[in-house]
Design brief:
This protein is of the alpha+beta class. It has helices at about 115-120, 230-245, 290-315, and strands spanning about 45-50, 60-65, 75, 85, 90, 105-110, 130-135, 145, 155-160, 165-170, 175-185, 185-190, 195-200, 210-215, 225, 250-255, 265, 270-275, 280-285. This is Ice-binding protein C-terminal domain-containing protein.
């Protein structure tokens, strides 16, 4: 039997639907403890705070092959207070265990996003009508979801016997998956593709609720989907206008200290795993180049400079 405490996204209680024009407080997790994943949360004053309650047919699935020796069987960690890490990660609407779910989480409150909030308010629409979906595209098998690839220590996940932390990188073929914003059951925004980066810190012990589960993505560029009715199109435009004003990108961030009540195990003849409640923020941000990208640009600039100097010297000769 799998250990019922895992390294992914165990939820917190939802908040009331309000708009709060306040500055975002810095995260309390110490990200200096994570040495391997390349992303960090970007501060924002424009945040959609969402929550997927597994008891309201929302949330998140993590699962693996029932055969632990299969390539997609997941792994048991090597860290202090080790726990089982599932191979796949996907939103509940992928219907791994069919339930008719249509989204992963719904908006609970809005910080900033003034155009979106005013559009909803003018039309007397609850923010909870907006949700996020994280799943394979229509017609793709559930195994096309985000996954641990070769599940290799030092490549797809990182840990050590003297640490309480495991860092996991879940990737997918961008053509097979989608992260979308929806109004009701209508998808209105493609939020773009990113790997999922997880930090699981069990410093409090395997079952303690002061442990951390962190979920991050790279900043991505959202775009409006085609074929929308006038109202949905206006809603999408309001969201994109707020994103553009904040820097042009969005980042998904979940910083959570788990509660055992937000996790349910499941198993069938193919897979075993967990259904989890899903706290998640959509932050409107300005994209920050990755260090490797910045270094590449610096090297390119240096090469161009050298090339120009050589060319000038040749002309002088």
């Amino acid at each position: 039997m799998l250990n019922p405490t895992i390294s992914l996204l165990i939820g917190f209680a939802a908040t009331a639907v309000i708009s709060t024009p306040m500055n975002v407080e810095a995260a309390t997790y110490d990200y200096s403890k994570a040495k391997n994943i390349p992303v960090r949360p970007i501060a924002s004053n424009n945040i959609l705070n969402l929550y997927g309650d597994l008891y309201q047919n929302e949330g998140y699935n993590v699962f693996s092959n029932v055969d632990p020796n299969a390539p997609d069987g997941g792994h048991f960690g090597i860290r202090i207070n080790p726990i089982y890490t599932s191979y796949y990660a996907v939103g509940r609407e992928a219907n791994l265990n069919p339930s008719g779910a249509t989204r992963s989480a719904s908006v609970q409150n809005i910080t900033g996003f003034s155009n979106l909030f005013n559009y909803l308010n003018r039309n007397n629409i609850s923010p909870s009508s907006i949700g996020i979906g994280i799943s394979p595209k229509s017609g793709r098998d559930v195994t096309k979801a985000w996954n641990l690839g070769e599940d290799i220590l030092g490549q797809d996940w990182f840990s050590s016997p003297d640490s309480t932390i495991e860092e996991d990188i879940y990737r997918a073929n961008p053509d097979d998956v989608e992260i979308s914003l929806s109004y009701g059951t209508t998808k209105i925004i493609d939020l773009g593709y990113s790997p999922f980066y997880f930090i699981s810190d069990n410093a409090g012990g395997v079952f303690a609720n002061e442990n951390w589960n962190i979920f991050l993505t790279h900043p991505t560029s959202p775009s409006k989907l085609s074929g929308l009715d006038p109202f949905s199109s206006g809603l999408a435009d309001a969201f994109l206008k707020d994103v553009a004003a904040a820097g042009g990108s969005i980042q998904l961030v979940s910083e959570d200290q788990p509660e055992a009540s937000d996790i349910l195990p499941f198993a069938n003849d193919k897979y075993q795993g967990f259904l989890l409640s899903f706290p998640i923020e959509i932050r409107a941000v300005k994209s920050v180049p990755e260090p490797s990208t910045g270094l590449g640009l610096l090297m390119l600039g240096a090469l161009v400079t050298v090339s120009r100097k050589i060319s000038q010297k040749q002309k002088q000769e």
